[in-house]
Write a structure and sequence with these properties.
The protein is α/β, with parallel strands linked by helices. The protein contains nine helices and ten strands. It binds S-adenosylmethionine.
Length: 277
């Protein structure tokens, strides 16, 4: 009878016999099962490799030197997921408001950033938020609304080359029309006068080496500089981010609390939550 008991033990998922649902054609069924097997086993192999060869997921200290960080990410094989998130952010051009929006105004933020920013705003309580790249103004409005509900006294300055894109108004937001490829056009006196702490968010994806170099002069210890969308390695933004870090990185620490909240670099902003030392 022992042999029968062994036979009754549940088999691993990949060996389990699956039944073809009546609604599926046989070819569809095999394609579906095949892709599931590849998906599951690739994820398993990756998890094993990551466990033995990858960077440690959890840093012992929260603020870590830039040079101690790797560019590996828990999202490295999640192409399909990344594409789906991009679609939720940008929407289908022919179908009105994108699935993710704030009060009907699109916000081009991924789910990890959407979860992390409220925590960062609450913790930092920035007196000044500087957003580079406003798009329609959705993200500026979202942050200003959140800070209202948190009773944080703050003002958002959001830069955008195409002023007529902006769809929103809020007493604590100033939209500034400027071409960020010409950092000499920043109003330096105005920047110097803005109260700290600062939260600077780079989301224009233009000339970021020069722009971040300008802000490096003005940020104080404890201010944050967030560089978004560094997940896409073959962009000039990422090249410029590396260049910025190799020159100015020693003045910053990566906040691993926000960067690794959902796993090592499980964010669109790889090593992108920087706190000025
Ligand atoms: C990714 S979108 C910003 C999204 C917005 N921060 C959000 O989360 O919803 C980038 C914006 O940067 C603007 N931009 C592009 N080049 C620029 C430049 N040279 N100067 C200023 N803004 C620029 C674009 O017009 C676009 O609206």
């Amino acid at each position: 009878m022992a042999i029968l008991n062994i036979w009754k033990k549940p088999r691993p998922r990949s060996l389990r016999k699956w039944h073809q649902p009546p609604c599926m054609k046989r070819t569809e069924y095999f394609a579906y099962r095949g892709s599931e097997l590849i998906d599951t086993n690739l994820a398993y192999l990756r998890r094993t490799a990551r466990k033995f060869l990858g960077p440690k997921s959890i840093h012992k200290t929260r603020f870590v030197p830039v040079e101690s960080r790797s560019w590996m990410t828990e999202l490295s094989i999640a192409d399909q997921f990344i594409n789906d998130v991009q679609l939720a952010k940008w929407g289908d051009q022919n179908r009105g408001i994108p699935p993710f929006n704030w009060k009907d105004v699109p916000i081009l933020k991924d789910p990890f950033s959407l979860a992390v920013y409220p925590l960062l705003l609450w913790e930092l309580k920035p007196a000044t938020v500087i957003e580079l790249g406003a798009y329609l103004g959705g993200s500026a409005l979202w942050m200003a609304d959140m800070m209202d509900t948190m009773n944080i006294k703050s003002h958002v300055y959001s830069y955008e080359i195409k002023r007529d894109l902006i769809k929103v108004e809020h007493p604590n937001i100033t939209f500034i029309q400027m071409d960020l490829s010409k950092p000499e056009n920043f109003d330096h006196e105005m920047l110097k006068s803005l109260p700290h702490p600062w939260l600077v968010i780079e989301d224009a994806h233009v000339n970021i080496y020069n722009t971040l170099s300008v802000f490096d002069k003005y940020v104080n210890a404890g201010d944050y500089v967030i560089v978004e969308d560094t997940l896409f390695p073959d962009t000039s933004k990422v090249e410029q981010f590396y260049a910025f870090l190799s020159e100015f990185g020693s003045g910053y620490e990566v906040d691993s609390h926000y960067t690794d909240m959902y796993g090592y670099n499980a964010t669109w902003n790889l090593n992108g939550y920087l706190r000025k030392k």
